[in-house]
From TrEMBL:
<keyword id="KW-0560">Oxidoreductase</keyword>
<dbReference type="Pfam" id="PF00248">
    <property type="entry name" value="Aldo_ket_red"/>
</dbReference>
<dbReference type="InterPro" id="IPR023210">
    <property type="entry name" value="NADP_OxRdtase_dom"/>
</dbReference>
<dbReference type="GO" id="GO:0016491">
    <property type="term" value="F:oxidoreductase activity"/>
</dbReference>
<dbReference type="InterPro" id="IPR050791">
    <property type="entry name" value="Aldo-Keto_reductase"/>
</dbReference>
<protein>
    <submittedName>
        <fullName>Oxidoreductase</fullName>
    </submittedName>
</protein>
<dbReference type="InterPro" id="IPR036812">
    <property type="entry name" value="NAD(P)_OxRdtase_dom_sf"/>
</dbReference>
<dbReference type="GO" id="GO:0005737">
    <property type="term" value="C:cytoplasm"/>
</dbReference>
<feature type="domain" description="NADP-dependent oxidoreductase">
    <location>
        <begin position="4"/>
        <end position="288"/>
    </location>
</feature>
Amino acid sequence: MSDHTAPADEADAIATIHTAVAAGVTLLDTADFYGMGHNEDLIRRALRTLRADDRERVLLSVKFGGLRGPDGAFVGIEGRPAHVKNALAYSLRRLDTDHVGIYRPARLDPDTPVEDTIGAIADLVQAGYVRHIGLSEVGPETIRRAHAVHPIRDVQIEYSLFSRGPETSGILDTCRELGIGVTAYGVLAHGLLTGAYRQPAGSDPRAHWLPRVHPDNLAANLALVDRLRPLADARGISVAQLATAWVIAQSRRHGTVVAVLGTRRPHRVEEAVTAADLALTDADLRAIGGAVPADAVAGSRYAAPLMALLDSEQRNGRAS
């Protein structure tokens, strides 16, 4: 709603949040660097006009650590204890709240031991400013090191039919072993799994950082989406609903998996929420997995420089 190729209409954005909460959505995921604070301001305005009991049901999940310049460019990752506490102070002010439900570094700071970062959040938990500690885009070793400092309640990771890495990297197994929930983002593969994406007349401007929409890969990936259409049509649902339901159904194998869906318009909320109630059978899951095998997707999920920033993608561990 704040950082996008086409900025969201703020009235629509607030109405979308209200519609989602009314439909039973209880998790709102944001970050202090989404629009350089704009998204937190937007959420504050949306929550301010909710009924008190609805507001009480909302859990705010806030990421920090992404540093940005005046032009909006990302300029680094920061996880030092002083930054952790300073960043939360500003988030609490923007959100107009005395605590957040989940606080998490958006990425692992390679120059700060994860124990120091989590230790600082643990201080904030002790002080009552944070209820639970989360992580984002980290691998099994980092999860274990962080969990040894303070219980981790949730790991946010990109996970979809097109991004199956968490299944083979040990991330999902580690979370299940330690009793940590998983928040899956990118469940629609940056739009590819909506079923509505079409090959653009020119190159998608995101192609330089999203290889899967690069012209070299896009046709093959859209062909995979087409293989999902008959499965969705047979159930009278959209490809997007099928892909979302598949992610949620992974809770059977991997423990609690929650899907975070990005939408900016109220009428999209019903479709998204309906997907949470779809009951996929084991046969359905096998058919879906057969239509989109884990190794069939063309292109990595991000360009190489961005992949290098992801602890979750470092198969041989990473010093920090």
